Amino acid sequence: MKMKDSETIDEYYTKVRELVNQLKAYGEDIPEKRVVEKLLISVTEKYDPIVTNIEETKDISTLTVTELVGSLEAYEKRRSRRKENSLENAFQSKLNMRSQNSNRKEENFKSTMGDKKKQNMRPCRICKRTNHLEKDCYFRGKP
């Protein structure tokens, strides 16, 4: 039996526990060490980092199923929180981008409106350009 990608540790452990209970009902003696080993080799790849850590730092022969499942569930919750945070950050980034794009559109609109206003101005009597008023003319008072 292998864990499916869509299953949580709790769901998978429930299946394993039911199977162990059935085997015990038929008279099989299954040591806790064997259940621990089965869980460690049958979880999905996403648990590889925690499985490696457990195998390297703990004595598998004395590790209880409860301790193992607790460690795997803690890892699962940590991964879940990280995914939620990264999803929230992605949404926030998207909102920020939309806001920036909206501001750019508004600025572009304002600048084109400003250009149209300048085009509607009468030509300056001093230099004959339409981009400023006579009182603001650079050439005013110059020979």
Automatic annotation (TrEMBL):
Residues 87-102 have a biased composition (Polar residues). Pfam families: Retrotran_gag_2. Residues 103-118 have a biased composition (Basic and acidic residues). Residues 77-121 are annotated as: Disordered. This is Uncharacterized protein. It comes from Sesamum angolense.
